[in-house]
Amino acid sequence: MSDNMQLKGNCLCGGVTVIAEEVKPSVGACHCSMCRKWGGGPFFALEAGSKVRFEGEENVARFNSSEWAERGFCKACGTHLFYHLKQADQYILPAGLFEPGPEMIFDHQIFIDEKPDFYHFANETKNMTGAEVFAMYAPPSD
Fold first, then answer.
1. Residue 82 contacts by C-beta under 8 Å, 6 or more apart in sequence?
2. Which single residue of 7, 30, 48, 121 could bond 43 by disulfide (Cβ 3.0 to 4.6 Å)?
3. Annotated domain spans of the chain
4. Mean of pLDDT over the chain
5. How many CB atoms lie within 10 A of CB 13?
């Protein structure tokens, strides 16, 4: 797998441009109930770290979906722009915002225990349950 990529994409109406400097080429799918409700299906995502800028910031709406994260979307067209872990300042971006390249590979799925039975992916991926995700990313306790 190649190194991190710099990607530039935009929403449907062009009111927001997303520029991400350090995107991992690893595409994941989140099957949690909140992501499925947000987008009508699994959330195909790219980890982008904190080096993310938005041109057209006035068109970005933010929704605090939990204590630790917010979701962003375009106020004009509704395109999903990001899932942002507030404490870590880490952005997870919808893969569909960007033109797919050969370096992108679908290799992991999270909240696999919440995936409905009516769909399956043929790709061989690393699969993690919700409990495994929280154990991996939960902030250390004092």
1. 18, 52, 71, 72, 91, 92, 93, 94
2. 30
3. 5-137
4. 93
5. 14
